[in-house]
Amino acid sequence: MSKQISDLHAEFIESIDPHAEAQELKTILESGRRAFEVSVHPQPSFHTFSDSMRSARPRNVRMLNLVGHANYRCGFFWLKDNKLEYEQVPIDRLVELIKTEAAGNGGTIELAVLGACETENLGRELRKAGVPHVVCWRSEVQDTTAKRFALDFYGSLDQQSHGHDYSRAFQQAVARMGSDGSAARAPKKHLAAGAVDYVCLLSEHGDEFPDTGHIL
């Protein structure tokens, strides 16, 4: 059975294009060794996300990628079914939904990538719930930075010949963030003055908190 990445996107406040990002990720991962089969769900409601989780195990979903807007109190913001308004879903409700499909509980999901601001709290709850590896942001993050990091992270995974060394892919993506001339590290206006971009890996093999620098 093929491995899938269920790519769920929510959009709120800041102008981002989650569908374009999802398609770029899909193109990169399905144009190489085809080690991944990518399933894209742009701008889902929480109901859509719930339906996707219920079929995660039969589809052998190994990686869950969520992109959008979030904060440390409520996690992600989700479109309502009417596609016109947004709602906050308590973190514990989201975690309980993913918990049933986590690899630590006999499910298939072994990695969650949370591409949004202040998702460390959600990431820690997912680790407690049995997700072996979680990539998240402990600070606010520019959309361009989170996007570039995700593409580099999955690109590194795609180049691995055997298995999935998430720590190595994480370290390689972090190294690219700090490279001179990286578009993702160029100074840009952020949501808040003095914001920083700090990505972290919460893992059953040990957490990693690299100092990825300060973006003005």
Word description of this protein:
With 216 residues, the chain is an alpha/beta fold. It contains six helices and nine strands; from the N terminus they run E-H-E-H-E-E-E-E-H-E-H-E-H-H-E. Strand 4 and strand 5 form a beta hairpin. The longest helix is centred in the last third of the chain and has 17 residues. The radius of gyration is 16 Å and the shape is globular. The N and C termini lie far apart (45 Å). About 12% of the residues have low confidence.
Defining key terms:
216 residues, alpha/beta
Give the SSE layout.
Elements lengths: L3 E6 L8 H14 L5 E5 L4 H9 L6 E7 L2 E2 L3 E5 L6 E3 L2 H9 L11 E5 L4 H9 L4 E5 L5 H17 L6 H12 L21 E5 L13
Parallel strand pairs: 1-2, 1-3, 3-7, 7-8
Antiparallel strand pairs: 4-5, 5-6, 8-9
Helix pairs in contact: 1-5, 5-6
Short description:
This protein is of the alpha/beta class.
How many DSSP helices? Answer: 6
Please describe the biggest sheet, giving its number of strands, its sense, and whether it closes into a barrel. 6 strands, mixed
Radius of gyration: 16 Å
The general outline is: globular
Mean pLDDT: 79
Instruction: Name the poorly predicted regions.
Output: 5-14, 180-195
Report strand %.
15-25%
The count of strands amounts to 9
Question: What share of residues is helical?
Answer: 25-40%
Distance between the termini: 45 Å
Order of helices and strands: EHEHEEEEHEHEHHE
Structural class: alpha/beta
What is the strand arrangement across the widest sheet?
Answer: 2-1-3-7-8-9
